[in-house]
Amino acid sequence: xxKEIVKIIFVxxxxxxxxxxxxxxENIPKEGAAILCSNHISELDMFFIGYRMKRLVRYxxxxxxxxxPILAFIIRKLGAFPVKRGKGDVGAIKTSLKLLxxxxxxxxxxxxxxxxxxxxxxxxxxxxxxxxxLAQKSQAPILPVLINGNYRLFSKVKVIFGKxxxxxxxxxxxxxxxxxxxxxxxxxxxxxxxxxx
Length: 197
Prior knowledge:
Elements: H1 3-17, E1 19-23, E2 34-38, H2 45-50, E3 57-62, H3 69-77, E4 81-83, H4 90-101, E5 105-108, H5 130-138, E6 142-148, E7 156-161, H6 177-193
Parallel strand pairs: 1-7, 2-5, 2-6, 3-4, 3-5
Antiparallel strand pairs: 6-7
Helix pairs in contact: 4-5, 5-6
């Protein structure tokens, strides 16, 4: 079963059980590398984001998800690859940079963990440095995406694609972890600002 069939199945399921509203689809780059950065509400996020996207998003997904053979098969078909959370997975970073160099869209959740709902930008945002590091090393644009909804059956889920932007980071400079965290925080503020537009 190929990724097209898997995707069709999810499109049918989501169309029946959810009211998905996609906003800003015109902001998705038609070609070339991009780092898709989104808030993280549920394990279903990657499916909702890719619901109507023509391009495949290559997601970093926590390695625990790959321990279930059926789930591993599905998410691999949808472009995911494993990452060890909280351990600075160098392998996952290298894989991401390789994919970006090949012109793929790589998806990452900069906060590194799930939050039940989208928040306003004036609240504290806890992030990981990975998103900023990828942006620095690849110099790829960032595609901000906001998911807003509770994922209850037959509820409305809104997926908003913002305009791509870049971070002013020197590819060859050695940044501290604190500096990269600040840049990742900027990314998430951009994501959450989509809630207020």
